[in-house]
Amino acid sequence: MYETHEDHVWLQSLLDRSYRRAGEHLRSITTPARRISAVDLCDLLPGVQILEVATVTADGRPRVAPVDGLFFRGHFYFGSSRTSLRYRHLRARPQVSAAHTRGEEISVVVHGTARLFSLLDPDRQEFRDYCHEVYLPRYGEGWADFARGDDIFYAVIEPELMFTFRMDQPRLT
What we know:
Blueprint lengths: L4 H17 L2 H6 L8 H7 L3 E9 L5 E11 L2 E7 L3 H8 L2 E8 L3 E12 L7 H15 L1 H7 L4 E15 L7
Antiparallel strand pairs: 1-2, 1-4, 2-3, 3-6, 4-5, 5-6
Helix pairs in contact: 5-6
């Protein structure tokens, strides 16, 4: 919906580069027929998608938890509280891994760097509009007040690698 032709081209290039860097085992599962194209991926991920985001503690222990994820212009975004451990981890160590899965049918995995921002940042107007489009019908104006609060932060994952998988469609006999 918001993705441009340039977004699709950039995302497809990322998906192709990532696939070339994948190990033999991953490529044996995510065969070319099972990969999701950039255009299809954008169509598959409108609105809120549960995203499992992994951060790392100061002593190197991984921590993963679900967040409301939004896929917007080829990037995963999420929000949380500035009082959360996740926020402290991301400020100190912004490298993240995240996954969105739907049973055995669809999987999207991204590894990259989380860039933190406020929804009120002037250069985030387009993303803010998308958030309003997604959240206001679901939660009403109370969401807008919540999102403007000092406690809330958002992050965009700048991807280094992204892998997609879609299970083959069952064949009818």
